[in-house]
Amino acid sequence: MGTKGREVPRVVCCAIPLASTSGKVLVITSRKRQDLWVLPKGGWELSDVTLERAASREALEEAGVRGNITRFVTTINSPSTTYHFYELEVTTLDKDWLESRERKREWVDYAEALKRIAWKTELAQGLSLSSLAPRR
After folding, report:
1. Do residues 92 and 51 lie in contact, with contact meaning Cβ atoms separated by under 8 Å?
2. How many other CB atoms are found less than 10 A from the CB of residue 114?
3. Model's pTM, two decimal places?
């Protein structure tokens, strides 16, 4: 089973909002659990046309972020979901956005971002493959 009742896994697009000049990542609180932090992500919709547009849309809706997708990071498969990660270089932060009354957002360095999202394995894996991750 593993697909939570779906015939195929859900397609989720995830933005990794970056300020590459300062080496920061923008993290947001979960709507369901305000004590947990996540990256902007959500389901791909037909109107998005591309996975990159879906990641950009989710970043705008969930974090008030505008910018440019600069890099495909990875695809991670779980039994119920296929996650596609994209780096998004932030150019503007909206003061008021669709979910601004439901979420907090905060710029943090890579290590802090990884610590905050570690509870969600797929998000931590995606971030660990980003251009901000230390080179091994």
Report:
1. no
2. 19
3. 0.92
